[in-house]
Design a protein that fits this description.
- By secondary structure, the protein is mainly α.
- The protein has one domain.
- Helix 3 packs antiparallel against helix 9 and helix 4 packs antiparallel against helix 8.
- It is globular and about 50 Å long.
- The C terminus is likely disordered.
- InterPro entries: AA-Vitamin_Transporters (IPR050638), EamA_dom (IPR000620), EmrE-like (IPR037185).
């Protein structure tokens, strides 16, 4: 890691986003998928706006920047969050986290298509090892009815994340003289508009005022969206898109454990072994990531601007 604090950010993101699948499942008892997406986006935007105000960060940018923000808001926020909500109506929360762990593979694939350069062999080995651990947790050979429409919807969300990581890394972070927190806030503001546009899909219905689901959406919005997105943008800025996306390999560990503790889902030797393999793949992928010197200088300058 280029910044030692990135390890803490990566772990915090794994906890926050790994638990988000359980929170979505709980929130579905009272809200529609599009209502959940809009609520978490608005709450996240409010948190980020408050952080910007506390740190004296002003949101600014020309039309070209806001167009790039709009693309990131669609593929990194609005679209995957609606898709995960829809998919989790039929897919277990732990399994959703495992599906989401394919995100680094899509990130590497889209990065290869954009740069037309092959990743270092060590990174490919780490990604492959991590994916092998995910397959072991997933164990498709043990369920004849695994490939349902809900699984494919969740997989579409992971693909969207992979595209977003590459786009944000190439078009937003370290390029516009704005700290990562400002970019995350701008993205969430635009995503709020997408959330409103998505409501007619299934969100034009009364919300059931049940305390536990409402608490779940509050935690999801404030911590799993607002604070998590601020950390994620900084992680992309410091370490690059591929390394940042490896948080998706850690998330299924959290989601499977929570599914076992809260929902009584199975946790056996195969799943524990898969988790260990996933962690090994993440470690190899992180150690193989070394940005070029000119990129490091740019990122250090941005970090200094944010801390000033």
């Amino acid at each position: 890691m280029n910044n030692p604090a990135s390890y803490y950010r990566l772990g915090a993101l794994a906890l926050l986003w790994g638990s988000s699948f359980l929170l979505i499942k709980v929130a579905l008892d009272a809200l529609a998928p599009t209502q959940i997406a809009l609520a978490r986006i608005v709450l996240g935007a409010l948190v980020l706006l408050a952080l910007c105000a506390v740190r004296g960060i002003r949101l600014r940018g020309d039309a070209a920047l806001w167009r790039r923000i709009a693309v990131a808001a669609l593929f990194a926020s609005a679209l995957p969050w609606v898709l995960f909500g829809i998919g989790e109506q039929t897919v277990a929360s732990g399994l959703t986290g495992v599906i989401n762990a394919t995100t680094p593979l899509w990130t590497a694939l889209f990065g290869l298509l954009v740069t037309r350069e092959a990743p270092p062999p060590a990174r490919l080995a780490g990604l492959g090892l991590g994916f092998g651990g995910v397959v072991l947790i997933f164990a498709p050979w043990q369920d004849d009815n695994l490939l349902t429409w809900g699984v494919f919807v969740c997989l579409g969300a992971a693909v969207s994340y992979g595209l977003a990581y590459v786009y944000i890394g190439r078009n937003l972070t370290g390029r516009h003289g704005l700290p990562p927190l400002a970019l995350a806030t701008m993205q969430m503001i635009v995503a709020s508009g997408y959330g409103v546009l998505a409501l007619p899909i299934d969100g034009i219905r009364p919300v059931q005022l049940e305390p536990v689901p409402l608490l779940a959406i509050a935690v999801l919005g404030v911590f799993g969206t607002g604070l998590a997105f601020a950390m994620n943008y900084r992680l992309i800025s410091d370490e690059g898109a591929t390394t940042a996306s490896t948080v998706a390999y850690l998330m299924p560990i959290v989601s499977v454990l929570l599914g076992w503790l809260v929902l009584g889902e199975q946790l056996g030797f195969r799943i524990l072994l898969g988790m260990a393999i996933v962690l090994a793949g993440v470690l190899i992928t992180q150690r193989s990531t070394r940005p070029a010197p000119d990129v490091q200088t740019s990122l250090r300058s941005e970090a200094q601007r944010e801390s000033s």
